[in-house]
Design a protein that fits this description.
mainly alpha; MetI-like fold; two-stranded antiparallel ribbon; about 70% helix; globular
Length: about 290
C-alpha cells in the first residue's frame, strides 16, 4: 500500500524523536571517551572539551601503572568468570530439577522459590550471615549471596518445560540416569539460554560494588567497580587526585576517572557482539509454549 501523508509524517516524526533520544544516550559515552584521551594540559586550560585538539594516552598509562587498578581488574575478572560458572551450574541444575514432574515435593520447592521473589531478608541479616560464615574480605562473599535468584530459576525452568518429554524418555531407555540426561541431552540443547543467562550473570558480577562495599574491607581485594566508585565519589582516595608527571604538568583527576570508566565498560561491550545471536534466541526460549 502506498503510504499516506499521515504515514509519512508519522515516520518522519518517529525517526526524528528516536534520533534525538539516540544522541542524548550516546553523548555521555562520547564525552567520557573524548575526555579520557584528551591531552592533560588542554583539559586544564579549557575545562570542557568536546573536540580535543591534542590526544593523549597519559591517563591510561597512569591507571595501568597503578598496582591498585591492575589488581582490581584481576579481581573483577576472577569474580565474573568464577561467579558466572557457579551461577550457571546452580541455576540450570535447580531449574532442571524443578521441571521434573515426578519430583516429590516439587510444589513446595516451587512455593519456596516464589517466596524468594517476593520477600528478602534485608541488608543487616545478609551481612550477619556472611559474617557468621567467615566470608568477610573473601571473594566468595561477592558470589555466594547472589549465586542465583528465584526469577532466573523460574525463567530457565520455563525453557526446560518446553523440551519434549520424549527426548528425556528416549535417553532414559538408552540407559541414562537423571544426571546423564541433564548433561548429555538437556545441556547441549540449552546453549542459547545458557549464553543468555551467562551474560546476565557476567554483567552483574562485573558491575558489583554494593556487596563489595559491605563485605570487603581490604582495598587490595576490591573489584574494579568498587575502586571506580571511590575514585568518582572521593577525589582524595587512591588514584583520585591530580598526579604530577614531571615538568610541572599535573594529570587532572577527571581524565583519570574517565579513562577508568572506559576500561571498566569496554570488556562488557566487547562481549555483546559475539553473544548477540544466542542472547536474542535464549531470551525468548520458554516464553511461548505450543
Amino acid at each position: 500500500m502506498k503510504p499516506t501523508m499521515g504515514d509519512r509524517l508519522f515516520i518522519t516524526a518517529n525517526a526524528g524523536i528516536l534520533s534525538i533520544i539516540g544522541l542524548v544516550t550516546l553523548f555521555p559515552l562520547y564525552y567520557v571517551f573524548v575526555v579520557s584521551f584528551t591531552d592533560p594540559q588542554e583539559y586544564i586550560d579549557r575545562g570542557f572539551v568536546l573536540f580535543p585538539q591534542a590526544w593523549s594516552t597519559l591517563s591510561y598509562q597512569y591507571i595501568f601503572s597503578t598496582k591498585a587498578f591492575v589488581n582490581a581488574i584481576g579481581v573483577s575478572g576472577i569474580l565474573a568468570t568464577a561467579g558466572t560458572a557457579v551461577s550457571l551450574l546452580l541455576t540450570s541444575s535447580f531449574a532442571y530439577t524443578l521441571s521434573r514432574k515426578r519430583l516429590k515435593g516439587r510444589r513446595i520447592l516451587m512455593l519456596l522459590v516464589l517466596l524468594t521473589t517476593l520477600f528478602q531478608a534485608g541488608i543487616i541479616p545478609d551481612y550477619l550471615l556472611v559474617k557468621e560464615l567467615g566470608m568477610i574480605n573473601s571473594i566468595w562473599s561477592l558470589i555466594i549471596p547472589v549465586m542465583t535468584s528465584g526469577w532466573f530459576v523460574l525463567l530457565m525452568k520455563g525453557f526446560y518445560d518446553s523440551i519434549p518429554d520424549a527426548l528425556q524418555e528416549a535417553a532414559t531407555i538408552d540407559g541414562c540416569n537423571e544426571i546423564g540426561v541433564w548433561m548429555r541431552i538437556i545441556l547441549p540443547l540449552s546453549i542459547p539460554s545458557m549464553v543468555a543467562f551467562g551474560l546476565f550473570f557476567a554483567v552483574g558480577y562485573w558491575n558489583t560494588f554494593f556487596n563489595a562495599m559491605l563485605y570487603i574491607n581490604d582495598y587490595t581485594k576490591w573489584p574494579l567497580q568498587m575502586l571506580l566508585r571511590n575514585m568518582i565519589v572521593d577525589s582524595s582516595t587512591s588514584m583520585g587526585g591530580s598526579m604530577a608527571l614531571g615538568n610541572d604538568l599535573q594529570l587532572p583527576s577527571e581524565t583519570i576517572k574517565m579513562a577508568a570508566v572506559v576500561v571498566a565498560t569496554v570488556p562488557i561491550l566487547m562481549v555483546y557482539p559475539f553473544l548477540q545471536k544466542h542472547f536474542a534466541k535464549g531470551a525468548m526460549i520458554g516464553s511461548v509454549k505450543e
